[in-house]
Specification:
Number of helices: 20
Strand content: 5-15%
Helix content: 55-70%
Number of domains: 3
Strand order of the largest sheet: 1-5-4-3-2
Order of helices and strands: EHEEEEHHHHHHHHHHHHHHHHHHH
Largest sheet: 5 strands, antiparallel
CATH class of the largest domain: Mainly Alpha
Radius of gyration: 25 Å
Distance between the termini: 35 Å
Mean pLDDT: 89
């Protein structure tokens, strides 16, 4: 939803040093141009006005912008700013931040902490808001089966073995995303996203009508991968639409929206307590995401890079893909089992109740959101490789320690692992779209998503076997953490992509 039209008034008394600054064009979230001045002023001036002046937006995110500044006879300076900005779905979140920045002007040439490093235009802001909404829908469909499978299994009389097989089958459904990845490069990112955005919640919601456990698994083996397809396709759109200094920032924002969508799936879980078949209502909730599909259909444009002439049928650079695949394996072989086995570890080894586990998760996982914001900005300013090398090893150490110690140290280690993992994520994820040309970007991203998922499955199976063999949780995680060190070493084989246009990174474009 849009922030809407607003008018802010500010007055500075005579002698206030902030007053004269208002008489010069802004150069922060908005770049202004002086379009009108009092006749008594120098008509050649384009940078300063000593009396009435009107400024309009030359470049910036606002759909409408006008700032009028006047000086009264007593020396007071009055400013009236009228503006409108459209942030789909998240206007409520940005309204106060935008209003504060409009009223309290940042230093010349600088951006506020909440904004990306680059100044965005209205189109990019609109696209980013739509992509964030799609990320929420994607995360909901990806999370739903994991959250409800235990309730459905009880209703259908299915045991733990059946649950394990079902989980594997649903994960294996990722193979169906490959045609959509190919379609993203052939028919366009927009059309491929719309296919997935309409199909994912619709097919996922069919789980509510499943007459048996097998058909429930079948619907989710299709619906969940379609949600994953939305995820990697919107990452491609973000990379192609964002300015060169803000691509990692966008990845961090989409990851935050992803977490919000997963949280909505968890929040819907109490519906399962309505009865033995109450879990079906949670699947009905998936239909709310059709509203996002409607909005994407109405307002999401095709990316400008795809519209431009480019080589449509091009191969994926094998050396770059191999390095990124190795990084995906190294990262996910630890991350998947660490998240999957955490609750069981807290229950069995630390004696935590369900309520205490919930509190633990809330307190230690929340910092990851802060890490995503820090990591996105750091990756855009300092470079991807530095951020990954500086954060990933310590994130892995935090994860391993969280399975090896108890008490406050365990809480601290989990907190640290989540924070540093969040910092590393945008730098890792943005590489998947930057290092491939327009004609192969969606395919490469889809295949790397497949590799990451397979690596997670390998990590889960390996951890389960070792734990059953008598290994401690800490020892298992320490072994799997070696993959993180592999990822750090491999990242230096990649070019630094920060501050570079996608065309500079891919000669064929």
């Amino acid at each position: 939803m849009p922030v809407g039209q607003r008018t802010l008034r500010t007055t500075w008394p005579a002698g206030d040093p902030r007053g004269p600054a208002a008489l010069t064009p802004r150069e922060d979230v908005v770049a202004e141009v002086l379009v009108a001045n009092d006749p008594s002023d120098d008509p050649q001036s384009t940078t300063h006005a000593s009396s009435d002046a009107v400024f309009r937006q030359a470049h910036g995110p606002f759909t409408q912008w006008e700032r009028r500044v006047s000086t009264s006879p007593d020396g007071q300076i009055h400013e009236i700013t009228s503006y409108g900005i459209e942030v789909p779905w998240f206007g409520w979140l940005y309204a106060l931040a935008v209003a504060h920045t409009v009223r309290h002007r940042p230093p010349h040439g600088s951006m506020p902490w909440w904004a990306p490093p680059d100044r965005l235009d209205a189109r990019t802001v609109r696209v980013l808001g739509l992509l964030a909404a799609a990320a929420m829908a994607s995360a909901f469909t990806n999370t739903l089966f994991t959250q409800t499978v235990a309730f459905a299994a009880d209703d259908f009389g299915v045991g733990n073995t059946g649950i394990g097989v079902a989980g594997s089958l649903v994960r294996a459904g990722i193979i169906i995303t490959i045609p959509l990845a190919v379609a993203g490069d052939r028919i366009g990112r927009r059309r491929a996203v719309l296919i997935a955005a309409w199909s994912a919640p619709t097919i996922t919601a069919l789980g509510a009508l499943a007459p048996n456990f097998g058909l429930l698994v079948a619907t989710q083996a299709i619906g969940r991968p379609l949600g994953l397809a939305v995820d990697f396709l919107i990452a491609v759109i973000a990379a192609e639409e964002m300015p060169r200094n803000s691509r990692a920032h966008a990845v961090g924002l989409l990851a935050l929206a992803n977490g919000l969508g997963a949280g909505i799936a968890v929040a819907a879980l109490p519906l399962a307590d309505l009865g033995d078949a109450g879990w079906r209502w949670v699947y009905v909730v998936a239909l709310i995401w059709l509203a996002v599909a409607v909005d994407l259909t109405r307002r999401l444009p095709e990316t400008q890079r795809f519209v431009r002439p480019h080589v449509r049928r091009t191969t994926i650079d094998r050396s770059r893909f191999a390095v990124l695949a190795a990084i995906a394996v190294g990262v996910n072989v630890l991350v998947a089992p660490a998240s999957f086995f955490q609750n069981g570890y807290l229950d069995d080894e630390r004696g935590y109740s369900a309520s205490l586990i919930a509190v633990f998760t809330l307190c230690t996982a929340t910092p990851a959101a802060v890490g995503l914001m820090i990591g996105g900005r750091a990756a855009d300013s300092s470079g991807r490789r530095r951020v990954i090398a500086g954060a990933l090893p310590f994130a892995a150490a935090g994860v391993v320690a969280s399975f090896a110690v108890g008490g406050p140290a365990m809480w601290g280690a989990t907190f640290l692992g989540g924070l540093l993992g969040g910092i590393a994520y945008p730098a890792i994820a943005v590489y998947r779209t930057e290092l491939f040309p327009t004609g192969a970007r969606a395919r490469a991203s889809g295949l790397l998503t497949l590799v990451a998922l397979v690596a997670g499955i390998v990590g889960l199976l390996s951890a389960g076997v070792l734990l059953d063999a008598g290994w401690s949780h800490g020892r298992v995680m320490a072994l799997l953490a070696l993959g993180q060190l592999l990822a750090v070493m491999m990242v230096w084989a990649l070019p630094e992509t920060a501050h570079r246009e996608l065309e500079d990174l891919n000669d064929i474009d």
